[in-house]
Amino acid sequence: MTTQTGRTRYAKGEARREAIVAVALGCFAELGYRNTSMREIARRAELSQAGLLHHFTAKEDLFLAVLRERQQVDARDYGGEEAPVASLIQAVRRNPTIPGLVRLYMTLLGEAVENTSVESFFVARYDFARAVLAADIRSAQRAGTARADLDPETAAQALIAVADGMQVQWLLDERQEMADAVELVWNLMQQR
What is the pTM of this model? Predict the structure, then answer.
């Protein structure tokens, strides 16, 4: 049986973890993964380093918590009022307003090749995105608004590839319109 005090401590601990994750997201987005230290996160979160280590024992653990938080935000976006393809386009359209997060995402995607924990996160993220996008494409095919000759899984992969590729191009030249390219590919997939 959990006491009121136990629930209060648990709620405070969860609130503290959420605050740390928010601070870490800001640090990672601003400084990059490699340049962010646990000491800097602790300082910005107004904790001692020991206090931070009580909640997250390693920078990688904290980073994975940040990625999971972003995944939850994306999952809410994909489950919103708009269909998943439209949500993807909207998310890509919002990306220029959060340049540090785009930079962080693309940097970590590259680092995933060497880090199995980060790699497994991205594999699961891509599996999720492909599944919801493919389901949306199948739905559009049934409604007669997407081309019947499309393989939904391949079409979903193409949309993701264009979105990620445009993020790289945008990081190199911010004059690029990321969402326009994704929207163009989606328009080519629709019935005319």
Answer: 0.76
